[in-house]
Amino acid sequence: MTSRFLPLGLLVMLAACGNRYEYSRASFNGPLQCAPYARERTGLKLSGSAASWWGQSSGRYAHTHTPRPGEVLVFRATSRVPSGHVSIVRRQVSDRTILVDHANWEPGRIDHAVPITDVSARNDWTLVRVWWMPIHGLGKRAYPTYGFISSHDSDDAS
């Protein structure tokens, strides 16, 4: 009798082993978002989608391709990240790696000291890979960025 239920039991067990880190696009649209988090932490007077921050900040805040603590790395909008993304630089670890704080890279989470590595050909931080906790390593995808926004007024920046 138990041999009749073996196939059903195996199917139930396999279903339970599914990728628990597979997120729907809707799961990224919860109440916790990267842009309000970054605005609150940095004092930048910017609003709207994260990708729009680069254009909004032009002439108001300094833009750079060199990371410094407190600056905001702005990700471009892509099919994977339709509204873009923003991360706050915590510190630089090496020429090509920084640690950032950001919200909602993983849905509903605020993560601190997350590694991001510059993989751009010109070492200008325009293409990066981001640490992905579910695999305990850098994600396989590279994401285009605009660069860094300084929380200082553009007149104050060097």
TrEMBL record:
This is CHAP domain-containing protein. It comes from the Bacteria. Residues 9-129 form the Peptidase C51 domain. Pfam families: CHAP (PF05257). SUPFAM superfamilies: Cysteine proteinases. It comes from Gluconobacter cerevisiae.
